């Protein structure tokens, strides 16, 4: 004994949800191309700025870090770019200075690992 109004509301709601999911995943191909192009251009500008403020050794080290931990490399790049934009970096960053920056970031983001051991208790074990 379903109420016809309630069933109609459910149907409309399902259609709205399906339309939202479809609209989010299917964009106009022109919009997708323009978004990809804008993303590519921003990445090129970012890389050009980094090449201007990093020495070749520091760039190589950052590239190796990006292979292993892309999010950490991105964070270091952000720190370097921010420092360059505020005028804190006046000469190219050497590999040694990059290492010191990495060490500073590591001390700020060090995670504490905690191991807890939970023993299973059998029915036959005594709790003496």
Automatic annotation (TrEMBL):
Ranges in coiled-coil conformation: none
Region (Disordered) residue spans: 16-46
One Gene Ontology cellular component annotation held by this UniProt entry: nucleus
Family matches, as SUPFAM superfamilies: Double-stranded DNA-binding domain (SSF46950)
Pfam family, one: dsDNA_bind
Any one Gene Ontology molecular-function term assigned to this protein's record: DNA binding
Biased composition (Polar residues): 23-35
InterPro entries tied to this protein: PDCD5-like, PDCD5-like_sf
Domain of life: Eukaryota
Compositionally biased intervals (Basic and acidic residues): 36-46
UniProt record similarity statement: Belongs to the PDCD5 family.
Name under which the protein is recorded: Programmed Cell Death protein 5
Annotated source species: Hibiscus trionum
């Amino acid at each position: 004994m379903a109420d016809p109004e309630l069933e109609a509301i459910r149907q409309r709601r399902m259609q709205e949800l399906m339309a939202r999911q479809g609209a989010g995943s299917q964009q106009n191909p022109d919009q997708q191309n323009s978004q990809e192009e804008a993303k590519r251009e921003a990445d090129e500008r970012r890389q050009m700025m980094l090449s201007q403020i990093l020495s070749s050794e520091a760039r190589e080290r950052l590239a190796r870090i990006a292979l292993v931990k892309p999010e950490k490399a991105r964070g270091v790049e952000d720190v370097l770019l921010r420092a360059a934009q505020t005028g804190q970096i006046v000469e190219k960053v050497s590999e040694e200075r990059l290492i010191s920056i990495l060490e500073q970031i590591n001390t700020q983001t060090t995670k504490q690992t905690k191991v807890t051991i939970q023993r299973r208790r059998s029915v036959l074990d005594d709790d003496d």
